[in-house]
Design a protein that fits this description.
The chain is of the alpha+beta class.
Length: about 240
Amino acid sequence: MFSNEVVAAVLPGELGKLIAEYVLGFIQTGETFRAVAILGMEQNKNLYVSKEGKWLALYVPAVFRSFPFALAQGEDDNRILCVDKSHISEDAEDSRFFDEEGNLTEVTSEILTFLQKREQELVTADKAAQLIAEQELLKEWPLSIATGEDLLPFRVEGLFRIDEEKLNRLEAVELGELRQCGALPLAYAQLLSMSQTDQLSRRLEYQRDESGTKQDVADLGELLSADDALNFDSL
């Protein structure tokens, strides 16, 4: 599962855990920006998932941890709790979604709470990323990852990073605005995460040894849907 995902949306509450293992950046969809963790350098190849489907990192991004559950948009802005039908069982010994009175069981209720909190945090993260962009603190980041002495590097286009010089020149009022909406921690987390590019290099080198993959270029902008949202189904 998730072996085709190449980016993961970043939530404010997980920044401390993400920067220990992932490179963070920003991607643009239309006029909006979103903070993401970079999981791969090619379409449909998640470097953090093994061939057996196991996650190859101590921390799994929150956007993936609710599977097989998800929230879907219903009528009148209502949210609907959904579950992948392949995980529905009629075995009486399996965990139940509802109790005898038709209420959510404790486990299902906890999952719903997690999904609701995650959705709220994603809204907060997107607002923070947008404020960072509005203050012109982002610059294009043609990330290049080397994988061996005799091999061409992989390059990622359509990626943005924090302009550290501009960030350091901000006035107190601007810094206050960033801090108030949670954008300042996000900006510093992105800068700190750049030290993890060796993670991508080692993972790419291992993958090349396994499959003999040739050099390619990934454009994160092409991995997004046209409605200004990450299209995880197409990755």
